[in-house]
Design a protein that fits this description.
The protein is built from four helices and four strands. The strands form two sheets. Strands 1-2 form a two-stranded antiparallel ribbon. It has a two-stranded antiparallel sheet with strand order 3-4. The longest helix is centred in the middle third of the chain and has 21 residues. The two termini are 22 Å apart.
Length: 130
């Protein structure tokens, strides 16, 4: 959790940025959009209809993958949502637009790291910049 109450992400290979404005938003996002890194295609966020289709395609691909492994993604999501008291029926496009806005707002969550040779590198502070 960052100073302003938002949730930051710090991954390997220098990926870093704000992922949600609250812990509730974070859990709602990862329950509705598992494998959330598959949703980091910025051009999909330029139009709500396009984003809806993009989200549907991602979800169907993931649902089929789970099904091949004998697991029901919708049931698993519902169990998690129930356990955390999160309404699973929220519009996924609204959730994704909140995520996108959060990743782009200022100030950005930026990390700087130093290599063994003394060189320093800083991220951009947006998870969409890969």
């Amino acid at each position: 959790m960052l100073e302003d109450g938002s949730i930051g992400y710090w991954g390997s290979e220098g990926a870093c940025g704000r992922i949600a404005d609250s812990l509730h938003d974070f859990f709602e996002f990862v329950i509705r959009c598992p494998y959330w890194q598959d949703y980091l295609r910025e051009e999909a966020y330029q139009d709500r209809e396009r984003l809806g289709e993009f989200a549907k395609e991602n979800y169907e691909r993931l649902r089929e993958s789970f099904q091949e492994n004998g697991v029901s993604l919708p049931e698993t999501q519902q169990k998690l949502a129930d356990f955390l008291g999160i309404e699973k029926n929220a519009d996924v496009v609204d959730i994704l637009m909140r995520f996108y806005s959060c990743t782009k707002r200022e100030p950005r969550f930026i990390q700087t790291y130093t290599e063994d040779d003394g060189s320093s590198f800083s991220g951009t502070g947006s998870l969409f910049d890969r």
